[in-house]
Design brief:
Serine Threonine Protein Phosphatase 5, Tetratricopeptide repeat; mainly alpha; about 525 residues; globular
Amino acid sequence: MNKINKFLSILIVHVLVIFVSMNAWAKSDNHVLSLIHAENNYDYYTWKELNNSPLKNIKNNRNILKKIIVNSWDRKDKIFINESFIYNVISNLNKLNKGKCEKIKYQNSNLQSFEITYFNVFNSWINFCKKKDFNPKKFKANISQINPSFKNVLDLNFLSYLYFNDKFNLIKDYYENINLIDVEFISINLREVYFINKIIKELNLNNYKLHEFENQISEYSNSNSVSKFYTINNYKDLIYEQTFQLANYYEAIGMYEEALALYSLLSEFNNINKDFYELSKFSLSLKLYKNIKNFNILKKYNTKINKLNFSKTEIFIKNARYFGYGKNEIIKYFNEQYNKYSDEQTLSLAFEISAFIVSSYSIREAVDFLESCCLDMIKNSSSIEHLFRYGALLERINRIPEAEKFIQKSLEISGNLPNPIILNYLAYLWVEMDKNFQQAEDMLIQAVASTEGNNGAILDSLGWLYFKQNNIPIAEKWVGEAYLLEPGEPEIIDHLSQIYKSQGRDRDAKYLDAKILNFHKDYFKIDSVIERNYEN
């Protein structure tokens, strides 16, 4: 009996050891899987909680960007600057923040054009930082190596160089020769435009060029832009501003971790503009992953620059639906903010809420909300975007005459630079209503030209207009080109099918209809496709 008891005791111990070990392995596996999930989904707050490995034991930069993002980077950790351009930027910004003037020495022919621009700008100012002597020819020679698409960056920096050296007499001559008309859209930066404007006003120079330039880009920028509150007092602020622009470019091309790391560093190094960086970081990080801790930090965040409260409110409203806020709660929050902002800013928030209502409730409820809160604002608005969005919503609930009125007003405000998407929207609406064919054709031809024939929806609209006019060969040409650009768009497939059927090409038409019936069952005109395939 004692032997049996002894055997059972040993067996129980072994089973317990195995069970504990398996449980530990399972927890370890779950930890690793959770860490991988956090890394792959930009969930940096969860990553911070799960990651306990000391950076000093890692012989590369694997976790540096993440640690910067969650504010746990030890500045003593070595950065391997040859791995990527971003690590050179981080290393040299860190040195600049400590008062050390060192150039970026990265050599790689695979840099993006905006990275090359930043490289040359940064190093030009480091020369200024080191020597503090006035040598405009050398400064301009150093900075002139940037990509021609970014010429206005050269102008900004050279004007700033003269300004920070108190060479006001030279600023006037240089400013008179600046060409702002041919500026590439990709390089437009309103913070820099406002800084140049500040210099010109301070020196009592004629700012007609800047005024014309601001009008030129008004279609692409928020008329209530908070960029005017960005502060540049010295060359370091200017370097930080252009680092901010570098982060914006990284965000635009999907290099999100690099962008977030730069926003985080700038928030620490350039306290005077901290709100800009923090709000950019909130906006991007919540777009990438809906982390409740991050959202709660946003709710409690108080901006030092009062005018930036609007940006915080906008980010909050964009994300509230993902954290349990329903329609009534979001509208209540909106009503609490109602009198704090300009009419156009209030409309921006209202249209953000209307987009949520459209996706989660109905278009009619979205229109009801807009009309109950902001109808007079919409009627008096000079915003192309707001007028068009309201008109488009009206069209979708079949309030066509009102829709036309608001969409046409948005085009009138556009002047000589009408948005091709809006041109197409109104022209196609008229084509479907069998009216204003000549005006619609003129608008669509203009839209095709401005998009260089690369927008399938616009080509399709033009082709459909010709089909409605019974000009079948020309209709086939345009809709056929649209189909080549967007072969998966059901309305284009539908139009091409009807063109083929009118030509007696029944087999080709049925093939296209089958694509809709099999792969696009949610197509809003599918009933007509079914009907023509089962008619006697």
